[in-house]
Amino acid sequence: MSKRRSLTEAQCVSLAQKLLRERLCHQKLPDRPLALDSQYKHLLELLRRTAVHGESNSVLIVGPRGSGKTMLLGCVLRELMSLKEAQKNVLLVELNGLLQTDDKIALKEITRQLHLENVVGDKVFGSFAENLAFLLEALKKGDKSSSRPVVFVLDEFDLFAHHKNQTLLYNLLDVSQSAQTPVAVLGLTCRLDVLELLEKRVKSRFSHRQIHLFSSLSFAQYVDAVRAQLSLPPDFPDPKFSDAWNHSVTKLCEEKSVEEILRRHFNSSKDFRSLHSLLFLSVSRVSVSHSTLHEADLLEASRLISADSKAIILHGLSILELCLIIAMKHLNDTYDGEPFNFQMVHNEFKKFIQRKSHSIHKFEKPVVMKAFEHLLQLELVRPVDSGVCKVQREYQLMRLMLEHGQVMEALQRYPQCPTDVKQWALSAFA
Amino acid sequence: MSRYITRLRMRRTYKWNGRPVGEDRKLKRKYYESMSISVEGKTEDATVSSGQYILIEGDDDDNPFVAQLHKLYTDDSGKKKTAVVQWFVRMCEVPQNKRKLLGRDPHPQEIFFYQDRSCDNEVDGETILGAVQIEYVPAENSFPEGKSKDILFVKLLWDTKSFKALDPELMQPPQSPKSPPPSSRGPQTRALPTPDLSVMKRAMSGTLTRGSMSTGKMNSSEAESLHSASKLSAAKALSAKRRSRASSGPHVRKKLDLCSPTKNVSRDDVLGEILDEHTEKTLTSKLNTSPTGRISISIRLTPLNLNEEERVFPLSSHSPDKPKLTAHDKDDATSVFLGVQSIGDDDPDSLINTSRTPRKREATPRRAGLRGLKARTPSRRKDSAALREPALAALAEEEHEDSPIQTAATPRSKRKSAQLVSSRIRKQLNVLGNKVDRLSDGDDDDDCFIPTKTDLQSSSDEEEEAKIDSEDELIVKKRRGSRTPRSTEKTRVTARTPRKTPIKKTAPATPRTPRHATPSIPSRSAPARKPGNVLEEARARLHVSSVPESLPCREQEFQDIYNFVESKVIDGTGGCMYISGVPGTGKTATVHEVVRSLQQSAEQDEIPHFHFIEINGMKMTDPHQAYVQILQKLTDQKATPDHAAALLEKRFSAPAPKKETTVLLVDELDLLWTRKQNVMYNLFDWPTRRNARLVVLTIANTMDLPERIMINRVASRLGLTRMSFQPYTFKQLQQIITSRLNRVKAFEEDALQLVSRKVAALSGDARRCLDICRRATEICEHSGSQKNGSGLVGMSHVMEALDEMFSSSYIAAIRCASVQEQLFLRAVIAEFRRLGLEEATFQQVFVQHQALCRVEGLQPVSVSEGLAVCQRLGSCRLLLLEGSRLDLFLRIRLNVSQDDVLYALKAD
């Protein structure tokens, strides 16, 4: 034990990092879902009744992405399985609308996960129709008191609604509304209008229970959550290190600049997934020589996250390409967003070379064309409609996929940008 | 067993072996001892002789029908070979829903002695495939191991209702194969000894007549009367003999056959012969029209009250324990005559006869039957022999005398209108019949020789009639339905006797499928917990799945569907019905309820048995799977859709003696739509077939489905029997909840009313209503722990539940959105206002968004962040986004009304 207590600092750092990464990458469920107590109770109670009383239910868990639907369900199922009564009885079937893209695949998956008798090894035999008939027969044979209840988890529930005739949903919900094997159908979705996707018969069979996960966090709670997320648990092997770490985290959260960063994040999105990615980036910067989290880490992480992807691409362009972008921007300003073609851009560029440029050489047209095509490849420029190929390349209509502001910002930051180019960009008239 | 070669592959020739062993001159039949069957390409011939067990060509090439050969004969032309057999059934021929009655797994080689008088037992001799070996296994023994695959075992008896132990004696051929057929008037018949009583008794019980026959009481009474016959007065003896003969009476039955119109040319001669032989006062006096004028004009409607009328008559009669069915057979000949001449007069009895006539006509030779055959014991032969003796004229007379009584035995009109009444009457009959039975017992012998007692009827007949009533009707229906005019295609029909469809087991689509996989969910370790408190109890009762004791508020619909199906089942006809209504109005539940109660009455023998199958358009992957599912539920075989369609087509168009009515429920009909609509077409066309006996109930949501999606020929076949389930009104919903709760006091009155009014206003969907109530009990349970409460679900709980289920979540979602998301929504609205359109590109909105950010004093977001915000709103469907690959030119629309957005943002 004494050995463990005197862990080297390096070990402590790596251990802390491992712990935090696990937490931030969703590998570990939190002990208790944050700020979702009522939903947690509701869902747990519902599933408990299915497991214990054999009551069939159907419920939708609706919430925006990253609001903790899967986490909530995971916590509930964990608690449910810790009940002795449920543990031995409940069968769990997990489906995902992105994986089971049609009913045929979904049925095979259900059959496989239920280990029905037409499963050999890991393979399900039989045609689609046979599988459906088999599954329905199996479910029909059960009854409320003697069969093991089945919990169906349908992730991305809305995608199941796009299956042909909604056969799977109809049948699952029909089972949940009739005296057959007890089932609980849990749908997870981020679409608020998911019920409108259901066909009227399917809809009628759905119990219309919805659990909404809307985070109503205030900023103070948000900061608290950040602190909790970054703190090391009390059972950390090296209490000295963890105390120091936790202290630094508390202090960090009180700092003005950090609060500003967090506020900005909070304003942008309240969900924890984006917060986690911010924290993850900052935690990754911790090293032995840099054993506590600093303000700078968060700042850097925030900068990385909120950086504009296109502005970054613009930094990598050549001067010629940048000039073409500026020419296009001027064309956009002149013609109020109407599409342009290469010839127009070239003309604009030529005008600039002739009149204002001092530092830039005159380029041959093919060279300019090559630069233009590079922009096309980067998708900074896009053809208006790709379908028309008959037009010569020079005259194909294009659009600039950049905002005015993005161009200006890129120019500001562009390393060693010629002054005349900058001025040209800033001038109202070409 | 596939080695039994069928007609498809092999041609067989049939030859009589030796000389005829006997001849029936009246019937112009020659009886043979055995027949040899030679198969093309095989050297040795197979020989089958009376008493042997044979295989008869059937539906299924792998499983031919099994029977015991009783007699072989040919008609005078010598062309048609007919065999009289006792059927055995395989497990696969037993209706699926009855198989569980066996209570164990059937042995693969097990067969059952088939006891059903409704089944035709004459088959075309040329359908015989060959001999087979059958062993009787006593009921308590297990099946012998290690025997050849070709030996079949018989252990039990199947009387279409239940499995019973089989008396090994039944397995004995009715007479020694060497002895001549009963109707031949050889001198040796007279020399036969007096019937042994036990044999007699066995013969009686084996007549396979009615359900009542199988009861021990009846048997013993019969035996008793027989016994007494031996020592009591001559009259009694005669009547006893007659009775025993009646229970077997092939002779008279054959006469009946002759009378039927489809019988061969010699009919008239035979009639004359019968008349000559049995000249009898009553008969001749009534026979004022020519005997040949009969059947075609003899069909008449029988008044409904006939039964009652008859009951009112003094029910003095003989032989209370007369075996019914044979009685019919016996007097058939007479009844035909009576029926003919009595048209126009009001003699109730003749009415009965006439009403019976069509049935008889259809019954024709093959009807002959299981009945009687078994009873072909020496005693009977003696009887018939005695009958021929001129000295026993009285006997002949008596035979006619007692016929009217027997005629009255089936005094039931088969028309459906009569059925409703008669079913009600039946109960009274049971009571009354009992009384009269005792009465008539006494004056058994007194009345014996009153010749003109045509208007009387045997009270016991009446009583038994009441019992077997429905069963009898079933048979009648079967006859009626399953015969095609015989005169035209006699041979062909006989050739296929119990024709269904030639069934070839097709291999399942993927042969690797584990074949014996049983679909089941493993059972749980401990049984589910029962509801503990009032609220839990209420919740269990309110669950949609709990089957209510009754279906309130659908009485009218229930009655209509009930009447429809019942009349079709009783008539043995077919028909379609279309039921429409929005989801959750109890369509399927009502139909199930109807079927449940019909099945109950079928159990009690009030109506004929029927087969109920259900398919659901939603529960199949493709409309054509409907065929597969129907076939599987009907016959438990798998087939491809095309093959299944062909098999069903054959099944529903071919006549078959053993067929029961099929009630088919097609739920979610609209999903069976195909471009050519052939599935729908077939479903509606089959019931119109003569022999189909198919009742199709279809359910869909829209009232005008037939007009909207069906082409004319389909809609026309669906017919106009339609029913529409209206959405429930709030009163009905309230009643439904109240009846479900059934005195479990869990809800406040007002709360119930609120729920039902709210649901009725929105959809009238009972499921919704129940779900809300269920949710309300949950809310009550949670809040109840905190505060007082009466423990009842009150207004506040219901309100909360309603809110949860009906309120739109958009506003809550907007309120909980992040600042940037809210800003973006505002930017969208601002841009819409600027453009005057309901659509904008992301670029346009983003400009607005940045402006708003500045106004709000927030740091403007980058394009990437803005796009992320936009996508988040899009994934919640607050915004509708189009063409995400268009990047800046992504088109944005609102999925919520602008007012809602503004409302949600303002209240913030």
UniProtKB/TrEMBL annotation, chain A:
CDD domains per record: AAA
InterPro entries noted in UniProt: AAA+_ATPase, AAA_16, ORC4, ORC4_C, P-loop_NTPase
Subcellular location: Nucleus
Pfam (any one): ORC4_C
Name this polypeptide is given: Origin recognition complex subunit 4
Domain called AAA+ ATPase: residue spans: 55-216
Main location: nucleus
The family this protein is said to belong to: Belongs to the ORC4 family.
Record carries keyword ATP-binding: yes
Listed GO CC annotations: cytoplasm; nuclear origin of replication recognition complex
Keywords of this entry: ATP-binding, DNA replication, DNA-binding, Nucleotide-binding, Nucleus
Subunit structure: Component of ORC, a complex composed of at least 6 subunits: ORC1, ORC2, ORC3, ORC4, ORC5 and ORC6. ORC is regulated in a cell-cycle dependent manner. It is sequentially assembled at the exit from anaphase of mitosis and disassembled as cells enter S phase. Interacts with DBF4. Interacts with POLQ.
Domain of life: Eukaryota
SUPFAM superfamilies: P-loop containing nucleoside triphosphate hydrolases
One GO-annotated biological process of the protein: DNA replication initiation
Organism (species): Cyprinus carpio
GO molecular function: ATP binding; DNA replication origin binding
Annotated function: Component of the origin recognition complex (ORC) that binds origins of replication.
Automatic annotation (TrEMBL), chain B:
Domain called BAH: residue spans: 46-169
GO biological process, any: mitotic DNA replication checkpoint signaling
Low complexity compositional bias, start-end: 220-238, 504-519
InterPro entries: AAA+_ATPase (IPR003593), AAA_lid_10 (IPR041083), ATPase_AAA_core (IPR003959), BAH_dom (IPR001025), BAH_sf (IPR043151), Cdc6_C (IPR015163), ORC1/CDC6 (IPR050311), P-loop_NTPase (IPR027417)
Composition bias type Polar residues, residue spans: 206-219
Subunit relationships: ORC is composed of six subunits.
Name of this chain's protein: Origin recognition complex subunit 1
Origin species: Cyprinus carpio
Gene that this sequence comes from: orc1
